[in-house]
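Data card: per-record layout.
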Amino acid sequence: MAKLKELFPGVWEYEGKILTRNKVPGRKVYGEQLIKINGVEYRVWNPYRSKLAAAIKNGLKTWAFTPGVNVLYLGIAEGTTASHISDILGDESAIIGVDVAPRVMPKILAVAEERGNILPILADASKPEEYPEEVKQFIDEIGGVDIVYQDVAAPNQAEILWRNVERFLKRGGYAYIAIKSRSVDVTREPEEIFAQFRDFFRSKGLKVVEEVNIEPYEKDHEMMVLKY
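The structure for this 228-residue chain is written out next.
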């Protein structure tokens, strides 16, 4: 009989699947499978739908998403990955989700209303100085966020991450960036792009802690983990 194996606080493996404990039992976010084990409901975290799940499947070791931490999520979209982070972090945490696309707002607002620990904002992640004043004030009041997570497919995604890290991340905090090399420059090899990111972040004083290639779940992508 398969056993439930804890990979990280709030993240389990069961029969080859990655699971998080459902914060809103009975409710799905993106059509994911629900599994009940010993009377507890879990959500299957699909690595083909979430780059963070793909990184876990491919051996990610650096894990900063522990209950009580606060996250600034850049490119939250409809909340697929953020909903699993919501499961993991619980009610003592806040996930401030930034997205520039008005079309995703109805879905992420509905997810946020059910879950209680997600705060979506319609804003441009490349212009953190233009975030709503109440959001900037909230982050300042809590002394900065513990994690900046970024999944924004843009040529300048390294600069976007850095602007948010510099403004909002606590010293000693972590940043996770899903790098889509083909969005940066389709004519260059992915490893060249990853090296460019590495050099850029090191030039800003960030430590590159870990890099995980996330193929076959996403082509020409890697998850890079940084420490401020």
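Known properties of this structure: Helices lie at 51-57, 80-89, 105-115, 133-141, 157-168, 181-184, 190-203. The mean pLDDT is 95.

See the next section for split statistics.
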